[in-house]
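Researcher: Good morning. I'm working through a list of sequences from a screen, and I'd like to move beyond sequence-only analysis. For each chain I'm collecting a predicted structure so we can compare shapes side by side. This is the next one on the list. No need for commentary yet; just the structure.
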Amino acid sequence: MPATQEISELLIRSNIARAVGDVFKTMLSRDAEPGITVGDGVNSSWPPIPVDGDAIPQVVGTVGFIGDVNGLIYLYLPLPFAIAATSHLLGMTPAELEEAGDEVVNDAIGEITNMTVGSFKNGLCDAGYPCKLTIPSILRGSNFSIEPISSVNRFIYSFETSGHKIVADILLKSGE
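Model: Good morning. Structure tokens for this chain:
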């Protein structure tokens, strides 16, 4: 069974850039340009989103993967972009979305996250690290941060799309 530390940062970065780019282009008709990269051990405590009084509310989708490699990916989307993405994905107006409630946005962002992490996972499988996905979940709010336990490697990548910053926060469990 391959150890997680054998997975290169280049493999992680290229897989997440491809996954985000493909899903956003195909499902949302938007380009997602890579931005800041924060690798394990290089300022990895940097919060993916602002945690101060000016924090924009976020919709954060998360999906895990288990197998020869174990981990979680948190996909942070600012609430205004999450609403716009859901509107595009479902063909609903903002007024229709407001009437339908937060659950519709949560479901759409959960599905976008699931597709993105699924594509990332497929890249790991192709590289010899077979794994399976877990069920998506959603976190909403502002002024929060996710802190991993000490036995994981953390990689944070940002993307710019339609004037919004999207963040992929990847946690990989260290090899035993």
